[in-house]
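Late entry, evening session. Most of the bench is empty. Finally got around to the prediction I had been postponing all week. Sequence below, unchanged from the version circulated by S.P.
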Amino acid sequence: MSIDLLPEVPAQALRNVDLAAAVPVLKARRAQKIDVVVPTSQVTSQGGNILIQGLDSIQVPSHTRLTEDGVTTVPGFTYNPSGLYQPTSVVEQQISGIHNIPVKYLRKLLAEDVELFDINVNRHAARATGSNLVRLIWGQIPGHLQTTGIVRAILSDRYAIIDHLDTVLAVLSGLDELGYGGENITRLDLSDRKLYIEIDAPQVAVHGRELIQNYRSPFTGQTGAELPLVHAGIKIVNSEIGHGAFEVKPFARFEVCANGASIDGFGIRKVHVGKQLDTGEVRWSNDTLRAANELVRNQVKDAVGQFLSVDFLSARVDEWRELAGVEVPKAAEAIKVIADELSWTEDESAAILNKFIKGGNTSAFGVSQAVTAQAQDVVAADRSHELAESHLRAAKIAAREAQRV
């Protein structure tokens, strides 16, 4: 059966979608996912793609395809997914770490001399010992018919699974047990590296007038005096490919602008480390999956109990009031210092200064609001969340610089 009759590789990125949009993508990813443990010496490169061989055949169900003649139904067939897999940027980093080859050098070779990239990777692989868990998604990549799919990660053979789809379902289960539901999951983002789930509890709210009474939303023009409420929330972060642990942490949502402000110093974290996996295709046992799901469910319940309360939110808002009382007289200079310390790009720095001016809140906490507002406009999910997570550090640097004036 021709590879061009395969279903396409599911979306690898989602930005600011709801539960209804995310679940079908996560289900498709699971259906087209293969995990296999292979000797490191067998993870080789051909034409800049990763060659994986010796996989068992799979049954591809019937599916529809959009062709020049319209929608065509492809009957089910048996298919062997061994072949070339296109690496993500994550995999380039992981190959760099496995073989101790500088990642900038590898990326330069991929861009300028693929043959030399293959030679470097394959020469190191030939001398390598040990095994790796390789996480694959099979399917057609439009315009790349020589490949069999995407290799998402090359990990330690002691990796413990916490699946994205299972995470979402376990989160829903944990919320349901405590009287919340799918409507409280307001935003989901997916990248090559992570899944982000934001849970809002508008029923748990406090007034934040002293923080935002002079603030104007750069999106709607509404003011903090008109919409002063701050809602409690929880953010859940998961990685299937070794970039960070499973995390549950609190945040606050400002009604006036929908900015999400992370709350530092609190949270629950679980590193993905498990028992050593045997060589061959990994078929995660029901007990393993059940334990992972139970972990997620319990941590969500713990987080709801700790973080979705008026007392907890009020205490955090009280802590932020000090920053709201510090005026930033030279905003452009302060934001330049912040950009240097937090490694913002010139474009990010300019956009945040613009948000600060539009927001009209000239305090150090106004800098925080500018950062979280700009994070909403960032297309790349990982960078959006990284930027949003830095809002309090930015505000504290602004307060420090204001005191030097």
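Two things to note before I forget:
Confidence is low (pLDDT under 50) at residues 272-279.
The first helix runs from residue 19 to 31.
Will write this up properly tomorrow.
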